[in-house]
Sequence to fold (186 residues):
Amino acid sequence: MVAVTGNMVAPGKLRRFGKATDQDRERAAFLSEMLPRIYGYILLRVNRDPGIAEDLTQETLLAYTRQQQSGVAIANPTAMLFGIARHKVIDWYRTRVMLTVDADETLGVIDPVDDLDRVLQRDELLRYLDQLPPGQRMVLILHYADGLSAAEIAAHLGKTRDAVESLLARGRRAMRQLASNQGEAR
Fold:
């Protein structure tokens, strides 16, 4: 598992004799608190591969730390961390062009604030997603789970906006068909 270690701030920000400031301790505490959430977020998006999730989590924390050290104010650190994580995952997938999610493996990673109905709906949707072609699955997740627009997805994947919109439309149509087939089977 990934660990938050070492100084998370530029050496010039530390007090004499290498002692951490209160601000340094707050940053380290924040990153320690966020680490499992970021790792879990990434893990679900990289087919539950712990090695890849650990690497991308470390890259995310490093990019966040560099951003802090640049001196630019960060208005919403949590949003920035998840944004960086999302971009790291997208970059990783861009080199692989496939996305697979095994719904059975996601059962153990449930946000404690989710209620049972939402968990069941999510699991059902994940089963449907698992039946879609990889391209449709990827754009649906990037659009609905990560909140990216068709233009943003196109830019990240190196596709045209029309191609992404076509994949979205076909993916939605296939999801509706899978849901209606499931409803008829009950």
About this structure: The two ends are 42 Å apart (CA to CA).
